[in-house]
């Protein structure tokens, strides 16, 4: 057995938290040799519910679960954290303007970024799930003095997994035979799910599907899948979001297999015309510790337009939070 890793989950009493914690504690994130210590952060009103979840975690008698702590104190929550999964966020309330939403989330993610810098382990890696995820990650990173910006990421793996599943369905193939999918840009309806480099088995996906299907069904369906789930399930994606967050952290920490890439929102180094410093989704690989943007992919005119549109939304969000003094 290796030494325990400390994982902080914010919004632990929420529905994603409930779908996430048991899987982390059972070893599905770091493998079955690595014990975990869980730190659950909640707002004061939800601490009791999180304590209930902690009781259930105890009742599972997971051999890998070394410790669980529940708190509403950010400094306690991020103490020695190797991985921070920032799930809790302020949802858009009725009549809430965009600036109010950004302001409310700035009030959460700024202090959390600072608390990570002050308390987390020196190798801390952060994934933001709470929306608007890319911009919340940017805010957290900008308050985490001394922590490399590359350690702050936002989740677009759920969009990626949805795209893989849609392409597999359409081509009557298994999900395991699909590779080379990319989500570009923002985790929002402007995201660009791109299958122009994808393969199904050993065949290019573009040879197997109609262009009209890509434009009129695949792209909008993936981008709006969250809304479709809400309509059908009566609640937003939870288990699939938790699953994607686990995929993201596992691939980041343990590495992506072979030469396969996945998608994650990471800090831009200027690649593919995305302004440096924005946290935008790219095709990425990990060597087991650091994400690397897949270089030199050909971007056709259609893809260029879609990437630019989503990046423009990210730029507008960044400018709005800058104006609000949140960066
Ligand atoms: P819930 O409303 O079920 O849970 C959120 C929890 O966060 C609540 O228990 C709340 O008390 C807590 N919380 C709020 N402010 C907090 C703070 N300052 N510190 C600690 N905890 C805090 O939402 P849930 O369905 O779990 O979704 C959580 C977030 O994930 C939302 O922002 C949602 O929009 C976002 N999503 C992101 C996805 C992605 O792919 N990036 C997909 C799924 C999901 O929509």
Automatic annotation (TrEMBL):
Boundaries of every Lactate/malate dehydrogenase C-terminal domain copy: 156-320
Pfam family, one: Ldh_1_C
Single GO molecular function: L-malate dehydrogenase (NAD+) activity
Ribonucleoprotein is among the record's keywords: no
Domain Lactate/malate dehydrogenase N-terminal: 7-146
Reaction(s) this enzyme catalyzes, per UniProt: (S)-malate + NAD(+) = oxaloacetate + NADH + H(+)
CDD domains referenced in this protein's UniProt entry, alphabetically: MDH_chloroplast-like
Binding residue positions for substrate: 92, 98, 131, 162
EC number: 1.1.1.37
Residues involved in NAD(+) binding: 11-17, 105, 112, 129-131
GO biological process assignments: malate metabolic process; tricarboxylic acid cycle
Keywords: NAD, Oxidoreductase, Tricarboxylic acid cycle
Family: Belongs to the LDH/MDH superfamily. MDH type 2 family.
PANTHER family the record matches: MALATE DEHYDROGENASE (PTHR23382)
Record-linked NCBIfam families: MalateDH-SF1, PRK05442.1
Protein name: Malate dehydrogenase
């Amino acid at each position: 057995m290796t030494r325990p890793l400390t994982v902080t989950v914010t919004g632990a009493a929420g529905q994603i938290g409930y779908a996430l914690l048991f899987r982390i504690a059972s070893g599905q994130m770091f493998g079955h040799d690595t014990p975990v210590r869980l730190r659950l952060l909640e707002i004061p009103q939800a601490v009791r519910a999180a304590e209930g979840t902690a009781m259930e975690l105890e009742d599972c008698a997971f051999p890998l679960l070394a410790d669980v702590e529940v708190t509403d104190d950010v400094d306690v929550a991020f103490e020695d954290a190797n991985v921070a999964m920032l799930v809790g966020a302020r949802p858009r309330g009725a009549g809430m303007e965009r600036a109010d939403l950004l302001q409310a989330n700035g009030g959460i993610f700024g202090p959390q970024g600072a608390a990570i810098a002050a308390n987390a382990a020196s190798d801390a890696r952060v994934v933001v799930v709470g929306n608007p995820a890319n911009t919340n990650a940017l805010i957290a990173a900008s308050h985490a003095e001394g922590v490399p910006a590359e350690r702050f990421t936002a989740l677009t793996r759920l969009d990626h997994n949805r795209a893989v599943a849609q392409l597999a369905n359409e081509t009557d193939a298994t999900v395991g035979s699909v590779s080379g999918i990319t989500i570009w840009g923002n985790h929002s309806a402007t995201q660009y799910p791109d299958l122009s480099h994808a393969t199904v088995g050993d065949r290019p996906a573009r040879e197997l599907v109609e262009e009209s299907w890509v434009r009129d069904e695949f792209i909008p369906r993936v981008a709006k899948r969250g809304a479709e789930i809400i309509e059908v399930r009566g609640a937003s994606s939870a288990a699939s979001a938790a699953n994607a967050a686990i995929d993201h952290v596992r691939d980041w920490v343990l590495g992506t297999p072979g030469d396969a890439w996945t998608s994650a929102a990471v800090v831009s180094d200027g690649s593919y015309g995305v302004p440096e410093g924005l946290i935008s989704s790219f095709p990425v690989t990990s060597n087991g510790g650091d994400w690397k943007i897949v270089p030199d992919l050909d971007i056709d005119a259609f893809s260029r337009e879609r990437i630019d549109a989503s990046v423009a939304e990210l730029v507008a969000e960044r400018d709005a939070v800058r104006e609000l003094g949140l960066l």
